[in-house]
Amino acid sequence: QVQLEESGGGWVQAGGSLRLSCAVPESIFSSYHMAWFRRAPGKEREYVAAISWETGGRYYASSVKGRCTISRDDAKNTVYLQMNSLKPEDTAVYYCAAASRWVGADPSAYEHWGQGTQVTVSS
Questions:
Q1: Taking the CB of the first residue and of the last residue of the chain, which one, N or C, has fewer CB atoms within 10 A?
Q2: How many C-beta atoms surround the C-beta of residue 21 within 10 A?
Q3: Angle at Cα 93 formed by Cα 2 and Cα 98, nearest 5°?
Q4: What confidence tier does 48 reach under pLDDT thresholds 50, 70, 90?
Q5: CA–CA distance, 38 with 83 (Å, rounded to integer)
Q6: CA distance 77 to 16
Q7: CA–CA dist 29, 15 (Å, integer)
Q8: 2: which residues sit within 8 A by CB, 6+ positions away?
């Protein structure tokens, strides 16, 4: 069972920043595409960002583009989501996910998920 582990969530005031981390097992880190999703209370799971292990390409949802940066540290087998200029509507549980083939924003195609980390942004 592959287990991803998120951390870094918390409470922050609007305009603040957080950096989420996702620890990825070494067995899959070098060959899986990684993404972040989020689920706000009463809403569907929403794509946030993805990074390709093959090209290094980074892709973002329009709702976070310009405010968030996805990155990966190969030495630490960790994927990050740096979030700046946070808004109350960013409040959600954030999940990292891994896919063996490039699937972009389609959550159903991601094979492995973490348990999530809560981000709360107050106005």
A1: N
A2: 18
A3: 30
A4: very high
A5: 13
A6: 26
A7: 32
A8: 25, 27, 28, 98, 111, 112
- Within 8 A by CB and 6+ apart from 35, the residues are 47, 48, 49, 50, 51, 70, 96, 97, 98, 99, 105, 110
CA Rg, the chain, in Å?
Answer: 13
Which parts of 1-120 fold into alpha helices (H)? 26-29
pLDDT digit string, tens, across residues 18-40: 999 999 999 999 899 999 999 99
Is the Cβ–Cβ distance between 67 and 77 less than 8 Å? Answer: no
Q: What is the pLDDT of residue 2?
A: 84
CA distance to 2, 66, 87, 97, per residue, from 115 (Å): 12, 26, 23, 10
What's the mean pLDDT when you consider all of the chain?
96
| Cα 40 off chain centre by | 14
CA–CA separation, 121 and 22 (whole Å):
20
